[in-house]
Amino acid sequence: MHSKSSTFRTHRAVTTLAALLAGALALSACSGSDNDKKGNGDRSSGATGSTVTLPKLNGARLEVAAVWTGGEQANFKKVLAEFEKRTGAHVTFVPAQDPIINFLGSKIAGGQPPDVALLPQPGAIKQAVEKGWAKPLGPEARKELAENYAQGWQDIGKVGGKPYGVYYKAANKSLIWYNAKVFENAGAQEPKTWQNLLTASRAVYDSGVTPFSVAGADGWPLTDWFENVYLSQAGPEKYDQLAQHKIKWTDPSVKQALTTLAQIWGKKDYLAGGQTGALQTEFPQSVTQTFTGGDQPKSAMVYEGDFVQVNIGETKAKVGTDAKVFPFPAVGSSAPVVSGGDAAVILKDSKAAQALVTFLASPDAATIQAKLGGYLSPNKNVPISAYPNAVQQKIAKALIASGDDFRFDMSDQAPQAFGGTPGKGEWKDLQDFLKNPTDVAGAQAKLEKDAAAAYGNGG
Q1: 370 and 303: one domain?
Q2: Spans of biased composition, class Polar residues (predicted)?
Q3: Does the CA dihedral 95-341-264-311 come out positive or negative?
Q4: Residue 235 pLDDT more than 70?
Q5: Are 64 and 165 contained in the same domain?
């Protein structure tokens, strides 16, 4: 299955948002200019105003499935509670497992599909449409999309030109978070280039702290590492070609990116627990161990998106002072900007399901979760002031300002079998590479074999 090609992405994706972020993230814990009271074209009279009309649904029962856990799930349930309050419907959150498309398949086979599912990959949306599971968005949801979303975010939720997905949640996946005290003690500076990053890592190591936490037990953060290096080094055109398997994973550009990654992954002393420890470290732990232990944590830096803040919140560290962030450094001529997201898709077409997705497409729903932290919306009418700290406000501003200029997560564009399945495909192949970063050619051969199988030899 080929992933959907998005024609709206241009070379400006790499330069425009990267430049915004580079300036935006050079900030202190608070900034007087951050308290914008409205987003672009906010239709409400303020952050708490209602902008969307919902039907009365007394007695209606809905199930919503997503893979979200912990604080992310708890915060989303508060959004669902507001929908219940406004409509009289009863909504049950159904915890799903990765890959969600397989989870949904078993539910559908058993005759019990959820009404709405949050799908984290455009490839999964296409698969759900091709299987006849997904239902098109109704006129109310389409109206909210048109009023609240840049065309690029609308397009990535379409299949065959028809809208099926509402991107309720977005992610900026080109960020590296660091323990401010460790950097201060080491005399390390926020890096702007890959070489600067290696220099900062050396300074941190020499100060007695391991530079990086890598969440190797979860394959998806490894794909994100690769995508940032590859986008910056090989450029957006090659990125799109590899995302669609129009070039092979044995291409020299992939060799270059893996060789670059090995400059960090290949240094045992640069990874908390070494390669073996990294492969046993799950994503939440990779974050929390960077921000616990004062100025002697298990690691100084952790790479991942803006959603890291949810996990930082589980420690005593404060975002903007103890926990700071810088854009993923430029490996090539420009710093990379990779976005991800989760789209609400209707599986059981009903008045209630359409109303819920319409609500999720409105600024009302996203504003509730924005205030709770650890969340980013591509909805341009969410007030910037809804985000709870200066770091999050700057990231949100940069995302909205980018408009249509972004590259979507490559593995999320791939068929699920290659880019979205634990223990298989790209996730497993990069885990194997993390285990043995000297075997670049072997990693490329495995990646190409698995990609060819998943895409139907569509290279």
Answers
A1: no
A2: 42-52
A3: negative
A4: yes
A5: yes
Q: Looking at the structure, do residues 130 and 248 belong to the same domain, yes or no? A: no
Arithmetic mean of pLDDT, 95-119: 95
Q: Is residue 64 part of a domain?
A: yes
Which 8-state DSSP code applies to residue 292? S
Query: Phi and psi dihedrals of 354, rounded to 5?
Result: -65, -40
Q: Do 181 and 329 belong together in one domain?
A: yes
Instruction: Kindly report, residue by residue over 113-142, the tens digit of the pLDDT.
Output: 999 999 988 889 999 999 999 999 999 999
| pLDDT at residue 40, as a whole number | 38
For residue range 183-212, what is the model confidence (pLDDT) as tens digits? 999 999 999 999 999 999 999 999 999 999
Pairing of strands 338-346, 165-172: antiparallel
Q: Taking 90 as the threshold, does the pLDDT of residue 71 lie above it? A: no
Last residue of a domain, one of 383, 408, 433: 408
Is residue 436 included in any domain, yes or no? no
Residue 444 lies in a domain: no
Q: Can you tell me the distance from the alpha carbon of 44 to that of 38, in angstroms, rounded to the nearest whole number?
A: 9
What is the distance between the alpha carbons of residues 287 and 215, in angstroms, rounded to a whole number? 9
How far apart (Å, rounded) are the C-alpha atoms in residues 454 and 87?
42
The answer to whether 114 touches 326, Cβ cutoff 8 Å, is: no
Note whether 160 and 203 are same-domain residues.
Answer: no
Cα gap 234→101, rounded to integer Å: 31
* Domain region containing 384: 23-172+339-408
CATH number at residue 163: 3.40.190.10
User: How far is 119 from 124, CA to CA, in rounded Å?
Assistant: 6
Alpha helices in 245-294 (DSSP H): 252-265, 274-279, 283-288
Amino acid making up residue 394: K
